[in-house]
Request: fold
Amino acid sequence: MAVQSVASARQLTASGDGPGLSLWDRLRPSLFRTVVRLAILAALCGIWEFCSGRVFPVFVVSSPAKVWTQFGHWLSNGTLLPNLGVTLEEAVIGFLAGSIIGCLLGLVFGLYESVAKTIAPFANALYALPKVMLSPLIVVWFGIGMGMKDILAALTVMFVVFYNVWNATRRIDKNLLDQFHLMGASRWDTIVELYLPAAVGWLLTSLRIAFPLALIGAIVGEFIASGEGIGYAVLAAAQQYDAAGVLVGIISITITAVCIDTVLAIVQRYVARWQGEGEL
Reply:
């Protein structure tokens, strides 16, 4: 027993969770990884700057210096932030609508197996259909305003959330479900106490996957028909052979998506701890 205790203490110390470690010892691995990542980024930017105009034409790949200059120009003339705000608004509305609809459909399919068996082929067919092919019809039905982008974003999100929530409900222990029924739990109690806690982990994972898809749906809609949004700004820059402008749009939307994914990851981590599953 004493040998096992010593071994456990050594494992805790080696993993950085031991009580005897100083703040510097706990932060050092994270700081080291951050320095390595910054060094890799700096090296890539240096190689890119060197190759621009020497190995590849500048108008094709631009350069970090030109991208930085164009970034400042777009900030100063009001091109970047208003268009980025429009795209985020479209993506968030579509994300919320698609997530709610997908979650509800997933719960319905999980609760009513007969409905799932009947409707599943149609759901699979709609999921397999490339959503971009629906965009001409959506433009005809809803015009070229924000509603069209919201619908495209919602369609790309809905099926990801739907399948994850449905899969979570199908994995519920049947014995546990039978115990709920034997104890006289109502349908609402079963949903709140069993189905929702079982689906929340899968739901948060699907949300992290779904938000970048919502951005894709919104930007595709802006490519198709729009007068504003980051997709419109990038398309206008591409038509002028402005590679730096295109890259400013790509980098801006990427940073935004990473920030939102980080927030969702923090929420997912706290929910996992609340459920006693440890960190993800």
Summary: DSSP finds twelve helices and no strands in the chain. The radius of gyration is 24 Å. Residues 41 and 235 are 27 Å apart (CA to CA). Confidence is low (pLDDT under 50) at residues 1-18.
